[in-house]
Design brief:
- This protein has about 140 residues and is an alpha/beta fold.
- The chain has a single domain, classed as Rossmann fold.
- It is about 55% helix and about 10% strand.
- β4, α7 and β5 form a beta-alpha-beta unit.
- α1 crosses α2, α3 runs antiparallel to α4 and α5 packs across α6.
Length: about 140
């Protein structure tokens, strides 16, 4: 199963004390799951990892990306065009660029399975082609 992982769950995967850590770990470790990191989340993930754990953990995450241990989905131009539409549509819940970009990537890849702790935003969004996001934690 193809699953998009956002910033909150990537940080939660690293942080053993994080809410939902064990659930995230089980899903990420399942060989039947293809975990995809959206490229717009990478700067956010790096910032959070550095702030919480220091530059060593941030560097390890970057090296994992570079060594192809993590699958990254790059933001395409058509995703960038879709982002303002999503932000405008969900203005009342303050969907920011990263969540809108993740949504655009999900729509393009036809994936509604998402690992996120950001239920407030992703429960509000109705991605094109689906009735809702299937939030896995």
């Amino acid at each position: 199963m193809r699953i998009i992982m956002d910033t909150s769950c990537m940080v939660g995967l690293v942080d053993k004390g994080f809410r939902g850590h064990e659930d995230i770990k089980v899903i990420a470790a399942d060989d039947a799951n293809e975990i995809i990191i959206p490229s717009p989340a990478i700067p956010e993930i790096c910032y959070m990892l550095n702030k919480k754990f220091g530059p060593g953990i941030e560097l390890r995450f970057i090296e994992d990306i570079a060594s192809v241990q993590l699958q990254v989905e790059v933001l395409e131009f058509r995703d960038i065009l879709r982002v303002p539409e999503i932000i405008k549509k969900y203005r009342s819940v303050n969907i920011g660029f990263v969540d809108a970009a993740i949504t655009a990537i999900c729509e393009r890849l036809h994936i509604n399975k998402i690992l996120t702790l950001d239920h407030r935003h992703f429960n509000a969004i109705v991605p094109l082609g689906f009735d809702h996001f299937d939030i896995l934690v």
